[in-house]
Automatic annotation (TrEMBL):
Protein name, per record: Adenosylhomocysteinase
Gene (name only): ahcY
Note on cofactor: Binds 1 NAD(+) per subunit.
Keywords from the named record: Cytoplasm, Hydrolase, NAD, One-carbon metabolism
Matches recorded under Pfam families: AdoHcyase, AdoHcyase_NAD
Biochemical pathway: Amino-acid biosynthesis; L-homocysteine biosynthesis; L-homocysteine from S-adenosyl-L-homocysteine: step 1/1
Needed cofactors: NAD(+)
InterPro entries on file: Adenosylhomocyst_ase-like_sf, Adenosylhomocysteinase-like, Ado_hCys_hydrolase_NAD-bd, NAD(P)-bd_dom_sf, S-Ado-L-homoCys_hydrolase_CS
Length: 419
């Protein structure tokens, strides 16, 4: 087993935190016990490029329990929990290539190291591993039978690859299943982003104006939680339907150029680049806080901010860089514009990642059974997996729901019954 981690001696601390997260992940734990009995991945090699956190560790443990040989690298240079990486290596025997704060070159070197396993299946969070396979390691494509993608940004990239005829194997868009995006994206991103904001800045949201860029599921979660903390929330959007939804939820909706001078806190969650750029920085008030909850560090145009600033006060607080503009105004950028909820906090709570990673695990087992019948392309998670995860989660929470009677089932499946 090979690995590249920061400090193997952190393994004991990491194991304790992994086990703590596992307490909040009963659905994944049930699946892990099932996989340990059935061994659906026996003899298979899996490469995963995911956030190396305690919750991810429990997914990797589940794949390994099913018989897989797993190699894990990080999907973000700042999200790795070094104690978690150490525990995966020392306590669970997983090959991990991840250290917090690595350079861009080291980040891609770790992806290359994870691919040395010559994977049969891949797991990605942002499409960097899949992109590396297609751009730099095409010699490995022949062995890859399929993959899963965890996040909105990655799915967007994969669909474009498929549209261009470039994608060489089937990939399941786990992000798009209801038990993932309705909960992970909305409740997970909402809570973990504000958690990161509070840890980094200790700011009070009550009475402040929070500008949320993007009103997809992540943006909905950000807006809901900020409003719940007493903030005035402004939403910016390019999609008229989503903008209309935000208006009818009671939020102010306007272009970013109009929101720029109003906001005390700016949170981006669009999956696109340059959402906050020079023309907006020039209009922002002194002390405005800028944070990104999109996967890649392109939503805030940091280079434009650097060119505009006359001075940069690094680490005025942990994870906070202060950019001083020519007129003396100061803008505070969190975690270099990278994914704030994992750079300044611990990411989503285990209870919500329980569903996302249950989707991943069950989809992996489905892919193993069905990959031979799938052409290269992007696929949805089968509906029965989504429903199983939801039912298991409800059961773990002690919640029961109704079932259709035979008469109701007949009514729903027959066109002969009138009103």
């Amino acid at each position: 087993m090979s690995y590249d981690i920061a400090d193997p001696d952190l393994a004991g601390q990491g194991r304790a935190r992994i086990e703590w997260a596992d307490r909040s992940m009963p659905v994944l734990r049930q699946i892990r016990e099932r996989f340990a009995r059935l061994r659906p991945f026996a003899g298979l090699r899996m490469a995963a490029c995911l956030h190396v956190t305690t919750e991810t560790a429990n997914l990797v443990r589940t794949l390994a329990a099913g018989g897989a040989q797993v190699a894990l690298c990080a999907s973000n240079p700042l999200s790795t929990q070094d104690d978690t990486a150490a525990a995966l290596v020392r306590e669970y025997g997983i090959s991990v290539y991840a250290r917090n704060g690595v350079s861009r070159a080291e980040y891609y070197r770790h992806i290359e190291q994870a691919l040395q396993i010559r994977p049969d299946f891949v797991f990605d969070d942002g499409c960097d591993l899949v992109n590396t396979l297609h751009m730099a390691r095409r010699d490995l494509l022949a062995t890859v039978k399929g993959g899963c993608e965890e996040t909105t940004t990655g799915v967007l990239r994969l669909r474009q690859m498929a549209a261009d005829g470039a994608l060489e194997f089937p990939v399941v868009a786990v992000n798009d299943t209801d038990t993932k995006h309705m909960f992970d994206n909305r409740y997970g991103t909402g809570q973990s982003t504000l958690d990161a904001l509070f840890r980094a800045t200790n700011t009070l949201l009550a009475g402040k104006t929070v500008v949320v860029a993007g009103y997809g599921y992540c943006g909905k979660g950000l807006a809901e939680r900020a409003r719940g903390m007493g903030a005035r929330v402004v939403v910016t959007e390019i999609d008229p339907t989503k903008a209309l939804d935000a208006v009818m939820q009671g939020y102010q909706v306007m272009p970013m150029a109009e929101a720029a001078p109003l906001g005390d806190v700016f949170l981006t969650a669009t999956g696109n680049r340059d959402v906050l750029r020079r023309e907006h920085f020039e209009r922002m008030k002194d002390g405005a806080i800028l944070a990104n909850s999109g996967h890649f560090d392109v939503e805030i145009d940091v280079r434009a901010l650097e060119r505009l600033a006359v001075a940069v006060n690094r680490q005025v607080r942990p994870h906070c860089d202060e950019y001083v503009l020519p007129d003396g105004r100061r803008l505070v950028l969190l975690v270099e514009g990278r994914l704030v909820n994992l750079g300044a906090a611990e990411g989503h709570p285990g209870a919500v990642m329980d569903m996302s990673f249950a989707d991943q695990a069950l989809t992996a087992a489905w892919l193993v059974r069905h990959h031979d019948s799938l052409a290269p392309g992007v696929y949805e998670v089968p509906a029965e997996i989504d429903e199983e995860v939801a039912r298991l989660k409800l059961a773990s929470m002690g919640v029961a729901i109704d079932r259709l009677t035979s008469e109701q089932e007949e009514y729903l499946t027959s066109w002969r019954s009138g009103s």
